[in-house]
Design goal:
The protein is an alpha+beta fold. The chain is built from 8 helices and 12 strands. Strands 3, 5, 6, 7, 8, 11 and 12 form a 7-stranded mixed sheet that branches. A 3-stranded antiparallel sheet has the order 2-1-4, with no helix packed on it. Strands 9-10 form a two-stranded parallel sheet. The two termini are 26 Å apart.
Length: 255
């Protein structure tokens, strides 16, 4: 049995260190082994490293913005084949509560990839099949991965609507004037929209294609995993719109 490269977080020391983990030889029935091609560095990852999120395990592989190639499937997975290109939706749904069953509402996540279970800052990642999306044939893996709130609040005019669909930290604060809220009839709405927006995003990726979703045009910078320290420094700065880890999957055949 071999091993694979991973970047693991010691949650007690809040320190990242490169390591080797044993290759998964058995895939749980409803899960899929993904060989990671691209894994983004999100501000949520940076917030976790800073201790702004509570992590309930001693060690964790971060990374929840993932695209890759299927390298193993559980016995209950019948819609994916080894070699398929996929993107990972880090958020899952319980599919039991009223919120999940209402198709137009967001849903609380269960065991988010890269936050509550190992993520994509590694050569391989184990993902529940419900959180995988098959990439359209014309969308490359590079595209499958890919406004500050306070400024948005200040920009609101009469009848404005502020939609908050993410926050990097539980410590984030937003300053709003009650006077402006009622005189300008401003609305503020929170939305866990991700579970229902992910599939639509893949459709748009197919439509926009190479003409718009090009790393150079978007200001996306990629690094190999071994250069993680430089990658994290770039992610913390304003030198790139987005930073991703890029893995070599050139030896993986696809259908």
């Amino acid at each position: 049995m071999g091993d694979y490269a991973a970047l693991q977080l010691d949650t007690r020391l809040r320190r990242l260190y490169p390591t080797r983990l044993p290759i998964m030889t058995r895939c749980p029935p409803g899960e899929v082994i993904v060989r990671v091609a691209y894994a983004g560095i999100c501000h949520t990852d940076l917030a976790i490293l800073q201790g702004d999120f509570q992590i309930d395990c001693d060690r964790l592989v971060l990374g929840h913005e993932i695209s890759g190639i299927v390298s193993g499937v559980g016995k209950e997975v019948n819609w994916l084949r080894i070699g398929d290109k996929v993107a990972v939706n880090p958020n899952s749904k319980c599919e039991r509560c009223a919120v999940c069953l209402h198709e137009e509402m967001g849903a609380p996540a269960e065991a988010s990839v890269g936050v509550e279970r190992d993520g994509g800052w590694a050569e391989f990642c184990l993902v529940p099949q419900s959180q995988l999306h098959l990439l359209p044939s014309d969308v490359p893996l590079k595209q499958g991965d890919a406004m500050i709130q306070q400024e948005a609040a200040h920009a609101l005019g009469f009848g404005g609507h502020l939609l908050i669909f993410r926050s990097n930290s539980v410590k984030d604060r937003l300053c709003l004037s009650p006077f402006n809220i009622f005189t300008n009839e401003i609305k503020v709405t929170g939305s866990l929209i991700n579970p229902y927006a992910f599939g639509k995003a893949l459709t748009w990726a197919s439509v926009l294609g190479h003409r718009y979703l090009d790393f150079n045009k978007l200001g996306v910078v990629s690094y190999p995993l071994k250069e993680y320290q430089e990658a994290l420094e770039t992610a913390k700065s304003d030198d790139a719109a987005k930073v991703v880890f890029e893995f070599d999957v050139s030896d993986v055949p696809t259908p």
